[in-house]
Amino acid sequence: MYIGKTPTVGNFQVCDAISVVNGQAAYTLQVGGTNVAPESANHMLVSLNGILQKPGSSFTISGSTMTFASNLATGDVIDFVQILGNVLDLGVPSDGTVTSAKITYPLTTFSSTGIDDNATSTAITIDSSGNITQPLQPSFRVQPTSEQTNISVDAWNTIAFGTEAVDTGSNFASNTFTAPVTGTYALSGAMYLQSLDSAASSYQVQIHTSNDSYSILVIVPAQLLSADTQYYAFAGAVFADMDANDTAILRIYQEGGTAQTDINVSSVFTGHLLG
Question: What is the pTM assigned to this prediction?
């Protein structure tokens, strides 16, 4: 932090040529036709008539105006004026000169790449083989704690998942995944149904989110079954666009028939943030 003007960082510049005016002591400093303001007279090298001038006594500086201690006369020559910038700063290092030993970790912000290291623990690791792991990436894998028996007919039934094998970020609760951030999520369901009713008009299973419903199974028993079947297994997956705080559930709808179908505990609901 600086009080007053922030110093120029390592900005070494040679001013444009200055023509002496007889009887004039003050001259405007420019680089490339643009006025420049040195930090102080001590941040300058000034040569007059082949002699380096002493800052403060031989000349002073105010903004972009350099004033000599006395008026110059015809025949005097300002050989050069060089601005040193803030000589305590190194400026921009040359390419390939900064080694990893000179960098303090953890780095706080990579604004140019969009990487922000504000996590309280390691958010991403790239090993020597190029493998990338993201231990904090939101993900879940859940299963029913017990069978969900005799699902309702002609109504949506939310599948009850009481056993969490994985819940990175603690975003799964009450049979529902809640997206912690906006992004694209890979969601999948592997269902193990028991006692399908051949008399039912249809069965439909959806991954249902706040934004959309994705059917991963639609079957018409009359076209597949000649009689009630004891087991029926299937799986489906989607890429779902979810906003922060959107929710996702797995649900099933039986149209018609008898309320006899069960959800086996081998059923699985999974998801993770892709990006």
Answer: 0.60
